[in-house]
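--- STAGE predict ---
source: upstream dedup step, 1 unique chain passed
mode: sequence only
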Amino acid sequence: MSELIKVENVETTGWQGALRGMRNPMESWDKSDTTFDLHRGLDNILSIIPDVGPNDLDLMMRLVKAGSDHRKFIRQIGISMDLSCAWGIWKEYATYKVGTVENSTSQMHKLGSRKLTKDDFAIEDWKYSHDSLLKLINSELTDWQALKNSEAHPDIIKNACRTMISLVPA
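--- STAGE serialize ---
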């Protein structure tokens, strides 16, 4: 497998409010030394990029070490990114996520729109038997696409979709 997980288009938001908020308990806003620059990134998106000053960095580090009640400023920083990985990894991801929102491609609508490759699966030691399985799955996906594009009853298509999704190994 070439890449298990690919991360792209990372953006962070909420820095100004988070840094201001971490100084609220001691009313030490005057000690803040972080500057914020407006940056035009990919796709002409405007982002505010912090240049964290030494005073703010020191406070952040102390708050993080002090425990979860004190490092709550971190929860105010939003992170957005595109993650691409094999389906089996997504199934594990659902177990560990906290406070996330997902927008994903639809398996029901996109499954079968292209041939699957080894990179679509979380199998590190790909053996010959897996190649046979991949050929079988791609053959079934071709049949599924033909059914989906036919005039078949919607319930038949929905049941076939469930079958196709369950056919894809974790």
